[in-house]
Write a structure and sequence with these properties.
With 88 residues, this protein is mainly alpha-helical. The protein has one domain. Helix content is 56%, strand content 11%. The chain has a two-stranded antiparallel sheet. A hairpin with a 5-residue loop joins β1 (34-38) and β2 (44-48). It is elongated. The model has no long low-confidence stretch (mean pLDDT 87). Keywords: Membrane, Transmembrane, Transmembrane helix. The chain crosses the membrane at residues 12-36, 56-78.
Length: 88
């Protein structure tokens, strides 16, 4: 998220923020779709149950995170003209 000497700092910041929000969305999907079953005989089960439209939303959020990470990395490689590696 450091935007020093980057040619397009605001575009990179937008991709970083969108990626972070999508990551938070993935974590919320996992939190809201967890379950725990406790039975009287002492057995229990825990898990995450994501089916139907939730799976589609989770897939889209994962794709958004991957795209934002790649684009943020590429924008981080594009430096301003006239600045060499020795200046940083």
């Amino acid at each position: 998220m450091l935007t020093k000497n980057i040619k397009y700092p605001y575009i990179k910041l937008i991709f970083d923020v969108v990626g972070i929000l999508a990551g938070v969305g993935i974590l919320l999907m996992f939190i809201f779709n967890t379950y725990a079953n406790f039975e009287s005989n002492g057995s229990s089960s825990f898990g995450i149950n994501i089916i139907g439209s939730s799976m589609t939303l989770l897939s889209i959020l994962i794709l958004i995170v991957i795209v934002c990470c790649v684009l943020s990395f590429v924008l981080n490689l594009i430096k301003k003209k006239g600045i060499t590696a020795a200046d940083s």
